[in-house]
Amino acid sequence: MRIRSPSLSELHAFATAARLGSFSQAADELHVTQGAISRAIARLEEHLALALFVREGRRSVLTATGQLYLDAIAPAIAAIEAATVALQTRRTERALRLSVPPTLFSHWLIPRLPDFHAQHPDTTLSFAPYRRDDPLQAPEIDAWLRVGTREWPRHIQADYVVGRELVPICRPADLQGPQAIRTAPDLLARPLLFHTNYPDNWARWFDGVGCPHPPLAPAADFELVALLVQAVIAGLGVAVVQHCLVEKDLAAGRIAIAVPQSVVIDRGYSLCQPAGRAAPAALQDFRLWLLAQAQPGSA
């Protein structure tokens, strides 16, 4: 069988540069030269026949394709790292195996994990592959982060973490000039971009802010939040997304809040664990840390 995957060194260089937005900072973190990072990413782009980064000033910014690739491989890289560490150190009460959806993993959890490791250096985290249809019963998994409403199966104890806040996003330029977006009705005059899996998000937001609207039709729909964000940046229209998944893009100024009105829905990410299984000390620590991270201003 032909092996199509690139080398781990190339993937580590890519993922670290993507997270830091800088080849030189990635080199410092991985203890190699900047040239080594550049060459590894060049080999990866040649292998894939795709551009993964573009330059914006001094920063290296992911292309839409690069973001999709990062979302797909980040959990696998984390799982490989965690599995290696687990083999090098005996599994004890301080080991924790989790399952996390790729979108939440790459956009929200991974940037916060260094803080967890700083607070709990004796805890080893490992990550199981994500399964959309997972019944949340595997005995080798300690806990799952999953999207859902307040209704969970009886065998699951769930703590809501983040993700119920919907916000409309646009380009920063859309807030300037005579045709600037200022109010919720202004958004109805713009092309509305939908999330394929949650096509009711726009209606929920307009209803939540008390803005009457006709039946809504998408100008385009996208299955991944990363694609929605890239479509907004490209000027295809406006979108409504979970605030927690666009924190980095908002902070970087790539997108802006179109109208400063958020709507809270009943669907969000929760930490799920078996109701009948005593939580190990590491899971108790992770739960408290995770809930603290979800508090406003904790990032």
Please give a structural write-up.
This protein has helices at 8-20, 23-30, 34-48, 64-88, 102-109, 113-119, 184-187, 201-208, 225-233, 247-251, 281-293, and strands at residues 53-56, 59-62, 95-99, 124-128, 143-148, 156-162, 165-170, 192-195, 220-222, 238-242, 256-257, 263-264, 268-274. It is an alpha/beta fold.
Topology:
Blueprint: H1 8-20, H2 23-30, H3 34-48, E1 53-56, E2 59-62, H4 64-88, E3 95-99, H5 102-109, H6 113-119, E4 124-128, E5 143-148, E6 156-162, E7 165-170, H7 184-187, E8 192-195, H8 201-208, E9 220-222, H9 225-233, E10 238-242, H10 247-251, E11 256-257, E12 263-264, E13 268-274, H11 281-293
Parallel strand pairs: 3-4, 3-5, 8-9, 8-10
Antiparallel strand pairs: 1-2, 5-13, 6-13, 7-10, 7-11, 7-12
Helix pairs in contact: 1-2, 1-3, 1-4, 2-3, 4-5
